[in-house]
């Protein structure tokens, strides 16, 4: 996102270790990012503070409907009206587990339905992701705008 020109980028992950790996990868540019170690379901996001929310491969870990509802409530609170959300999960042909944990798989319609009518679906698609160990996983992306 920094490479694409986004500024005031924050990265949130529940794992300090994951953040450390990303910081190392960004090297000197790591200082341009605000790093937040927190559970996305519990973090106190500043209301309407986010223009673009980008999640790849986190939402699909939420196999409990209550957790998915909490996630959507967090997104609704944090995103400014008119802001955009990109959420990517494993697609229907994706794996049933990730890092040894069960995951939910979605078509674009199913994924958009999780977020509901406040989110207008602007675009969607599937994309293969090559893992560090060389296998290919199907991802589904939904790109939505939070309606005013
Ligand atoms: C498969 S990795 C994806 C990492 C990165 N988004 C990417 O696409 O390369 C999933 C990440 O979600 C994080 N994660 C899982 N549950 C989370 C939660 N409730 N809150 C914040 N991060 C979470 C994990 O620590 C892990 O780093």
What would you say this structure looks like, in words?
The protein is of the alpha/beta class. The protein folds into 2 domains: 1-38, no CATH class; 45-146, Rossmann fold (3-Layer(aba) Sandwich), CATH 3.40.50. Helices cover 22% and strands 38% of the residues. It contains 3 helices and 8 strands; from the N terminus they run E-H-E-E-H-E-E-E-H-E-E. It has helices spanning 16-26, 65-78, 108-115, and strands spanning 9-13, 33-37, 50-56, 79-90, 97-98, 101-102, 119-130, 136-146. The chain has a 4-stranded mixed beta sheet with strand order 3-4-8-7. A two-stranded parallel ribbon has the order 1-2. The longest helix has 14 residues, at 65-78. Bound molecules: S-adenosylmethionine. S-adenosylmethionine binds at residues 13-15, 18, 39-41, 56-58, 61, 98.
């Amino acid at each position: 996102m920094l490479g694409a020109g986004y500024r005031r980028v924050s990265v949130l992950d529940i794992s300090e270790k994951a953040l450390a790996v990303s910081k190392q990868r960004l090297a000197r540019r790591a200082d341009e990012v605000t790093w937040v170690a927190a559970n996305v379901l519990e973090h106190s996001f500043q209301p309407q503070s986010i223009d673009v929310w980008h999640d790849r491969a986190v939402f699909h870990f939420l196999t409990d409907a209550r957790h998915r509802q909490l996630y959507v409530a967090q997104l609704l609170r944090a995103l400014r009206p008119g802001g955009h959300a990109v959420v990517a999960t494993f697609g229907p042909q994706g794996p049933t587990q990730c890092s040894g944990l069960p995951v939910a798989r979605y078509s674009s319609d199913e994924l958009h339905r999780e977020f509901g009518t406040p989110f207008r679906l602007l675009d969607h698609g599937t994309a293969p992701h090559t893992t560090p160990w060389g296998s290919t996983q199907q991802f589904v992306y939904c790109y939505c705008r939070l309606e005013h």
